[in-house]
Structures are given as C-alpha cells and as structure tokens.
Amino acid sequence: MASQGTSSPNIHVLAFPVPGQGHITPMMHLCKKIAARDGFTVSFVNVDSLHDEMIKHWRAPPNTDLRLVSIPLSWKIPHGLDAYTLTHLGEFFKTTTEMIPALEHLVSKLSLEISPVRCIISDYFFFWTQDVADKFGIPRIVLWPGSAAWTTIEYHIPELIAGGHKLVADESVVGIIKGLGPLHQADIPLYLQADDHLWAEYSVQRVPYIRKASCVLVNSFYDLEPEASDFMAAELRKGGTEFLSVGPMFLLDEQTSEIGPTNVVLRNEDDECLRWLDKQEKASVLYISFGSIAVVTVEQFEEIAVGLEAIGKPFLWVLRPELLIGNPVEKYKEFCERTSKQGFTVSWAPQLRVLKHPSIAAHLSHCGWNSVLESISNGVPLMCCPWGAEQNTNAKLVIHDWKIGAGFARGANGLIGRGDIEKTLREVMDGERGKQMKDAVEVLKCKARKAVESDGRSAASLDDFLKGLSSQ
C-alpha cells in the first residue's frame, strides 16, 4: 500500500499481461499481493479494448495503490483472446509489437505523473518488453502464467524444431526435453503443432529472451513440479536469472482480500448458481466449464448432453454465448428443458467460489492452467477435455503424472462419444477410480495451501523477490 508520511516515492511496478483471461488473472493476483505491501505502487496495463470492458467490473482493492491503465492495439478483443485469435497466433503476436512505441511513451508518462517506473513485470510471450526495459535501464521480470513443465518445453523449442518435432500427434517419445518425465509427441502443446510460419518465427525469437530477464515468476508451487522447477532454476541461474515458483497465485488473494480470492471479471458472473449449489448434497455436483476461449460443435454438445442425462447427476454447466458453434439454439433449448430438474446453466460463473463449494464433486474442464490449479487447490478431481494452447500438456500432467484426473478417447472425427463420456463420468463420480483421484488431489490441495502460508516455499520466494525490488 502507499507509504504515508515519507518523502521517498513508492516502488513503482508496471505490469503488462497478455490480453487473455488465463494470462490476466494470475498477473492481477500477483499485482494485488504486491500493491498490498507497504511502499509499492502498481500500474496494470491492458490493451484498450479489453481495458474498456474490464474497468466496468473493476473493484479496486482497499488500501492499495493499484491502477488500471490502457495502451492502444489495433486488434480488438474486449473479452480477451478468443478462438479466432488462437487460430491466428502468429498474426496476433506480430501485431502486438506495434505497442512498443506506445509502451515506451507510457513508461515515460507514468514515471513523470506518479513516480519513476522501477521494473516491468510482463508476460513471457511479450518478450519484446525486455527491449523497452533495457532502454529505460530497469529490470524486466517475466510472469510465467502456466506450469513449470511448460517452461521446460518452451525452453527447448530450438531443439524441438531442429529435431522436426512438429504436427505429428502420435505416441513417439520426445527425449530431448530435460526436467520432465516421458513425453509423447501428442503431449507437446497444441499451439506448437500449428502450421503457422509467423508463429514459428515468433516462438524461436522469444526463447532467448527468458535468459535476459532478471527473474521468472511461475504460477505453480514447487512440490507439484520439483523436477521441472529444479531444471529451469539451474539452467537460468547460469546467466544470473532467478526462477521462482510463487503460486498458486489466486491463493495469495485469500491473504489480502476480506471477501476471499476473486478472478478478473471480463463477463458478468451469475451468482444465482451459488444459491442453486447451496441446495445440492455434499460432493454431488459435476461442474463443467471450458474456459474463456474454447468452442464446441453442436455434435459434441449433444454427446456431452446425452452422457450427462444418462448418469442423472446434478451438474452446473458454464455455457458462454459463443461456446457453441453450428446453429445450436434449438438443441440448447431442448437440453435445458429436459434437464431443468437435474442441472443449472449459466453464461459465466464465479469459478473460485464454485470450486470451493462443498457440493462440487468433480470438474469437467478444458484444462487451462488456472482451472487446473484452482481445482487442485480446492481438492476437486478433473475430467480433461483439452481444446488448444498447452491444455493437452496440462491434461497429461493431471492424468498420468499426478493421477488426479481422467481423460476421454476421441474418435476419428475428433468427437468424444456419449458412451465414453457416460463411462468416465460414472467412474469419477461413483467409482473406485474417482475415490483414488480424490485422495490424490486432497494431498496436493494441502501442499498448494501450505506453499502460500507465511512459512511456505511460494510465500518465502515471493517475499525474497519483493525485498530484492525494495533494495534496488
């Protein structure tokens, strides 16, 4: 929070996430924690179209100096990255480099109006912010919004490309990625399998920049991924870059917020679902959410719907207006009518409060990293339906490494059939496999929450990092 009665200015941090829900959320959790510390000011930068939407829902944390500011970008994404953007990653990220002059101007402007910007915390994928930081003679800190395992894969991109590991989603083993257990070609993040030459160029460009940062903050906790964390820490230490696991970042909000942790809101949340959950039995409800970007065909929607009806369990399903593609209106109406006594649908849910609710038994998820961490930290087993980005890698970790989730088999047409959906739902909701997953995720839940306690490893790492900033 702002210093009182002193002549020395606060340490001014400029934070700049990639404009997507999954990237903005951990950055905001981190910035709330920083701004709650005495002597810090945080300027949180969003692209203009998203800033205009976010500010409608913004509630400034009390007793902190945390400000929202905007920067112009010609690519308009009021709700953050969308399905179109994810299929045109090269074009999008090339467009983001047009913000370099605007960011330089913003750093100068904020330094004059508030106090000198002392460091830039930016998303890993905005590697060009390092050049801006260098121009002003200030450090850049990388926020890695995903797993430590994901960092090791990104770190090995030059070797992956040299080895021809691209677009062959088969069971051949990729043996060149250190810090991870056995990894099949199909486990390589889907975005690295895209046939996009602009994205390939951008990918190769960004890797060396991680070694130029003064520190990398990872939204994970050490006990979840010790091997990957140790490998990356040792590698980056050679060049003087720290690698610190400081998550789960959303749990940091529990220490600084009177109302508990809240995610960044880019859509109107429907709190009515919480009152519906209050009426359900303990550990009886299946929560379904495919995140903020994924889309689902009408055919896949029908397969899921039939599987849900077959098991007869209560469910809470987040159905964003743009989630279903292919003229779904009638199918959606019919489904809602048939299941009105079984389930509840919303266009967007307060996910942190949903996953914390005692009625939730399992989470059918796209396996975005925030959803994975939030499920782990609340002791909720997962059913994995990855759609894009690194979600397939996350699903591999959840199912095979940590054994806290189950997957589905896709047919030749890419569909997950109703029979497999029903079978997996029954196994997780009622079977022995589900009990084993629940036991395993409860162990990780305890470790996640321990990590952010005052004597926990994540808390200590973040504290050391902030002390280092204070002493510069």
UniProtKB/TrEMBL annotation:
Q: What class of enzyme is it?
A: transferase
**Enzyme Commission number(s):** 2.4.1.-
Which Gene3D superfamilies does the entry link to? Glycogen Phosphorylase B (3.40.50.2000)
Q: Which GO terms describe its molecular function?
A: UDP-glucosyltransferase activity
| Family annotation (SUPFAM superfamilies) | UDP-Glycosyltransferase/glycogen phosphorylase
Q: Which family does it belong to?
A: Belongs to the UDP-glycosyltransferase family.
Q: What is this protein called?
A: Glycosyltransferase
Natural source organism:
Selaginella moellendorffii (Spikemoss)
The root-end lineage is: Eukaryota, Viridiplantae, Streptophyta, Embryophyta, Tracheophyta
